[in-house]
């Protein structure tokens, strides 16, 4: 049975998945354009990490960072390579959207890459209503970054 649960970034399998995520981000974008968080950053106050597991096997993860009392940012969305294309990312995205709504956020934002590698993520976010937006928070315009946002119904 697939479950989404609160997660510790330092848990061994999560740590490995996040390491794979960081490695891929650095392979796709220049270092100054990589905004993926390491496990220490994912443990900071204001950031909550969840895993998607099936019978204890890690399928993916995703985090929600509070930007303000009414806005959040999706971070560290990652699906294990072996299960890509099977709805794990969509399930996590819906969970993050529902959690953001419960928290009272009226806007949910994200930053992702612009390279072809990120096309499946672009499709997923657009399918769930996210639209391109200007940089938010501490981000600045960057040809390697695509910024997206969703206005939530609370």
Question: What does this entry look like structurally?
Answer:
The chain has about 150 residues and is of the alpha+beta class. It is built from four helices and seven strands; from the N terminus they run βααβββαβαββ. It has helices at about 10-30, 40, 90-100, 120-125; strands at about 1-5, 45-55, 55-70, 70-80, 105-115, 130, 145-150. The mean pLDDT is about 95.
Topology of helices and strands:
Elements: E1 2-6, H1 12-28, H2 39-42, E2 47-54, E3 57-68, E4 71-79, H3 88-102, E5 107-113, H4 119-127, E6 131-132, E7 145-151
Q: How many β strands by DSSP?
A: 7
| Estimated structural class | alpha+beta
Low-confidence segments, given as residue ranges, are: none
Distance between the termini: 30 Å
The proportion of residues in beta strands is 25-35%
Cα radius of gyration in angstroms: 14 Å
Residues in helices, as a percent range: 25-40%
Looking at this protein, list some descriptive labels.
about 150 residues; alpha+beta; 4 helices; about 30% strand
């Amino acid at each position: 049975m697939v479950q989404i649960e609160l997660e510790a970034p330092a848990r061994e399998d999560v740590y490995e998945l996040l390491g794979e995520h960081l490695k891929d981000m650095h392979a796709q974008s220049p270092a100054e354009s990589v905004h993926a968080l390491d496990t220490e950053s994912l443990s900071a106050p204001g950031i909550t990490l969840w895993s998607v597991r099936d019978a204890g096997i890690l399928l993916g993860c995703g985090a929600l960072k509070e930007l303000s009392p009414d806005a959040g940012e999706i971070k560290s969305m990652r699906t294990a390579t072996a299960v890509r294309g099977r709805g794990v990312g969509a399930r996590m995205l819906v969970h993050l959207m529902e959690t953001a709504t419960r928290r009272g956020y009226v806007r949910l934002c994200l930053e992702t890459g612009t390279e072809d590698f990120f096309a499946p993520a672009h499709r997923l976010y657009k399918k769930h209503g996210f639209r391109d937006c200007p940089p938010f928070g501490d981000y600045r315009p960057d040809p390697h970054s695509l910024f997206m946002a969703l206005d939530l119904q609370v």
